Amino acid sequence: MAKTSAPRATYRCSECGWETVKWVGRCGECQAWGSVAEVAVASGPAGRTPASPVTSAAVPIGEVSVTEAGFRSSGVPELDRVLGGGLVPGAAILLAGEPGVGKSTLLLEVAAQTARYGRRTLYVTGEESASQVRLRADRTGAIQPELYLAAETDLGAVLTHIEQTRPSLLVVDSVQTIGAAGVEGVPGGVTQVREVAAALIRVAKTRNITTMIVGHVTKDGSIAGPRVLEHLVDVVLGFEGDRESRFRMVRAMKNRFGPVDEVGCFDLSADGIVAVTDPSGLFLGTHHVAVPGTCVAVTMEGRRPLLAEVQALTTPTAQERAARTTSGLDAKRLAMILAVLQRHARMQLHGRDVFASTVGGARLADPASDLALAVALASSTCGTPTPRGVVALGEIGLAGELRRVRDLDQRLAEAARLGFTVAVVPAEPGPVPAVPKERALDGMRVFELHDVYSALEFLRLTQRPRMGTGYDE
User: Fold this and answer.
1) Residue 62 lies in a domain
2) What is residue 50's predicted lDDT score, i.e. its pLDDT?
3) Is residue 469 pLDDT above 50, yes or no?
4) Is the C-alpha dihedral spanning 388, 389, 390, 393 positive or negative?
5) How confident is the model at residue 63 (pLDDT cuts 50, 70, 90)?
6) Residues at the annotated binding site for ATP?
7) Which residue positions form the known binding site?
8) I need a labelling partner for 188 at 20 to 30 A (CA). Which of 249, 284, 331, 419 fits?
């Protein structure tokens, strides 16, 4: 007879589910303070796990049918782009984002478009009443005969709705509001979220239902709940956006059916959410006259090139310690570029307050925007406007060298399409020529330079330029 041991004491984090054999004040996984508490875990019977009947016989992989796992359009082209082609039957998709960013509006639009194609859709809301969702559907034009709506917070009731409606698409808003009877904890807790997600995904796989689950995020922007939630689902999407802007971006952080880090762009308004197929113009400023401290960068969001304007302002400081303020840019990257400019471009920046930002709420994390930021800083410091029609792209090293970036020709083609005529880019490794190498691409003049000082001197943005080597408009 198999032996069973008495329940053993263990300690579990209420934020992320991390477990340890002894109490600690700080979670070793999510670094939260005071979240580790003692829980009783009953040990199972000792010995081997007995064999059980299989659900389906194993077959050679070449005989497995792929027709059931084909992509189906969601009706939202930008979301199809992020997913790699559309919705896959039986797939579990987790959409996470900050409160008020528009997650419910986007999924209601996806549900309405799927129902418009004649495929039955079940929208389960646990955060709002059915009448509140109906009001949003009236405003956004999402009323469809095949779109079913249920307001439930109990997992058993949700499973009953699935059994009765038999949908091809299930939307659950949100997983933190659904509770499972007989499971310890309150809805939204680690144990509850794990059990609810596992049950929904199990139904999705067995009934071939595409399931889209809304998830919350913590204060630092990570997905709330146990990390196992991200492992259970097939696709993890992050919904990003600034509250002061209507522009929204959906980014794929995990995708078993398509590319990762692909993005989709949307415009959120009172009438609903619509796709933005050409978002570059949203991040470019409009200046009637040339002003110092601006430069245009070309960044890659997934496989899509986006143009964004970088602005900088440097002023003599009256404080003992100069200020360094950023918006939409990495503060540590700014500090590194300031050090490179002071060391390798002979710019005195230690006694100046520095402010750097992007236009339109864009967030630039691509190292290819380093050169544009350096050009904007030099332009503001020297008081000389950057020549019109110029884009700058390239990564800056600590030695002041310019490093090549990926998809360079694709970035330049996008800049040329939007009317830019001159591009400053990193040169290929090799001997430094007397004059910058020039080539033409889609009607654009592309100049290749080896280091940041040469690039600033070429654009006549150094404090002591050498005449006759710069770019003449």
Assistant:
1) no
2) 79
3) no
4) positive
5) confident
6) 97-104
7) 97-104
8) 249
391, β-bridge pairs? 296, 423
Do 237 and 344 lie in a common domain?
A: no
209 pLDDT tier (thresholds 50, 70, 90): very high
Q: Is the pLDDT of residue 379 over 70?
A: yes
- Which tokens is 418 given? 């939007």
* Tokens (6 digits) for 441: 């691409």
Lowest mean pLDDT among 8-22, 92-106, 429-443: 8-22
470 has a pLDDT exceeding 70: no
Count structural domains, the chain.
Answer: 3
Residue at a domain's end among 220, 246, 277: 277
Backbone angles phi, psi at 455, to 5 degrees: -65, -45
Query: Is the pLDDT score of 473 beyond 70?
Result: no
Burial pattern 171-195, b for ≥16 Cβ within 10 A else e, equals: bbbbbbbbbbeeeebebbbbbbbbb
Domain match, 256 and 338 both: no
> Which H or E run contains 317?
none
**Angle of the 130-140 helix axis to the 103-116 helix axis, nearest 10:** 70
What does the block give as tokens for 88?
Answer: 């896959």
Question: Hey, which bits of 104-246 come out as E strands?
Answer: 121-125, 147-151, 169-173, 210-215, 235-241
Boundary-marking domain end, from 257, 277, 297: 277
Domain containing 79 — which CATH number?
3.40.50.300
Indicate whether 98 and 200 sit together in one domain: yes
Note down the domain range covering 170: 70-277
Q: Is residue 64 part of a domain?
A: no
Same domain, 97 and 13: no
Does 147 fall in a domain? yes
Residue 345 lies in a domain: yes
Q: Do residue 243 and residue 295 come from a single domain?
A: no
Coil, helix or strand at residue 326: strand
The answer to which of 24-33, 136-145, 213-222, 376-385 has the lowest mean pLDDT is 213-222
d(CA 138, CA 76): 18
pLDDT(245) > 50: yes
Same domain, yes or no: 300 and 244:
no
On the 0-12 / 13-18 / 19+ scale of CB atoms within 10 A, 370 is buried
Query: Which pLDDT tens digit goes with each residue over 338-367?
Result: 999 999 988 888 889 999 999 877 888 899
Q: Are residues 252 and 174 in the same domain?
A: yes
Whether 248 and 304 share a structural domain: no
